[in-house]
Amino acid sequence: MKTPKISEAVVRRLPVYLRFLNELKANEVLTVSSQDLGQKLDLNPAQIRKDLAHFGEFGRKGIGYDVSYLIEKIRAILKLDRVMNVALVGAGNLGRALSNYNAYLKDNMKIVAIFDNVPSKVGETVNNLQVQPMSELASTVKNREIRIGIITVPAAEAQNVADSFAAAGIEAILNFAPVILKVPSHIRIHHADFTTDLLSLAYYIEEEEEHE
Amino acid sequence: MKTPKISEAVVRRLPVYLRFLNELKANEVLTVSSQDLGQKLDLNPAQIRKDLAHFGEFGRKGIGYDVSYLIEKIRAILKLDRVMNVALVGAGNLGRALSNYNAYLKDNMKIVAIFDNVPSKVGETVNNLQVQPMSELASTVKNREIRIGIITVPAAEAQNVADSFAAAGIEAILNFAPVILKVPSHIRIHHADFTTDLLSLAYYIEEEEEHE
DNA sequence: TAGATTGTTAATCGATTAACAATC
DNA sequence: TAGATTGTTAATCGATTAACAATC
């Protein structure tokens, strides 16, 4: 309906705005300008105004943005104003780290099931959830109305998990395994690949002898 | 010397190429075309050729790229052909997950020290390393010639850690805490913020009633 | 009113893609 | 030679930034 065609870059900045706005609210700041936001987030103020203007007129000329109001708006845009159940596959270190991250809770993203196909891990308790075998994935996804899946298994198994998610009717996937996964085009997939971030970091380190 | 000015987007794709090339090599594939690469990695072949051409002529017309040769070249570009010591601060779940990730080892990125300022964690062993108190950061960074720092502490403490890294002479930082950190301009910082990825995911999920 | 700041249009900048001569 | 594929130039596309009228 009101989806003109928003670029991915814009959508990815919204959570960043949201996070900082929440911080402002916690500090009882009532109003914020694109200037302020830009300074704190290292972004151009015009860009911030433009990003927000894609979705409506949220600010007031001469004044700025009402913090609480803007939070509400961004949450609605990102569909964080409703509960969104999440399944996680891979109860290793990273999986545990994520499930303990209760930060999502206040944004209504909730990990409600954890799966692993390593027998020794099945039945273990992670963050109050019993690790389930992969054989229960499809039924659990359906019963618990899970719409988002997180993959934290080793690279070699990631495609299989993605396939299982797809078969179970998952609508969006966040993949932490260092592989590019193929999924049906109706499924949204984001690659959260920090090995890429880390490996690209060294490029920017100065040589001993050289100056750039 | 041979630094014309490469865009960040290009540098971030290099580790992706590298990873897949390593996979090809493991499967004893000798040669690969930009066509093949593009298909596997969901990228435009012209883009891949252009990315690589920034750094030299690595391919052969009519044939493609020699897998082993290209691996060597990319590793050299990313400075992964030498050992790069890494310090990690924050021995929580995520910190542990990262230090167990031995994937870096073959790329010569090595976590050689782990720090935390929570007393109960100091002295614990994580992946064969004893967790050290923050008070030892500066001296350890110097003695062990650590050049890269990873931050896996809660958001509220991340800026402090970044400041300590800066004071200790760290040259690049990978930050997992969900905050934008301010560091001196000579320090390279990457934000590996998966909460952003996760929160932006819901945006793309279809409404029940709507079609896009 | 004077100062501040939005929403938006226009200008700029940069990145991606297409196309093709060169050549293996 | 014919087919394949690079390296690179030119064309396109899209995103960022500047500028400013509108207005609180």
From TrEMBL, chains A, B:
DNA-binding region: 16-55
SMART domains referenced in this protein's UniProt entry, alphabetically: CoA_binding
Subcellular location: Cytoplasm
A matching Pfam family: CoA_binding
Xref: InterPro entries: CoA-bd, NAD(P)-bd_dom_sf, Rex_actinobacterial-type, Rex_DNA-bd_C_dom, Tscrpt_rep_Rex, WH-like_DNA-bd_sf, WH_DNA-bd_sf
CoA-binding domain span: 80-180
Main location: cytoplasm
SUPFAM superfamilies: NAD(P)-binding Rossmann-fold domains (SSF51735), Winged helix' DNA-binding domain (SSF46785)
Source superkingdom: Bacteria
Positions annotated to bind NAD(+): G90, A91, G92, N93, L94, G95
Keywords, in A-Z order: Cytoplasm, DNA-binding, NAD, Repressor, Transcription, Transcription regulation
Record's function text: Modulates transcription in response to changes in cellular NADH/NAD(+) redox state.
Subunit structure: Homodimer.
Family, as annotated: Belongs to the transcriptional regulatory Rex family.
Record's protein name: Redox-sensing transcriptional repressor Rex
Gene this chain is encoded by: rex
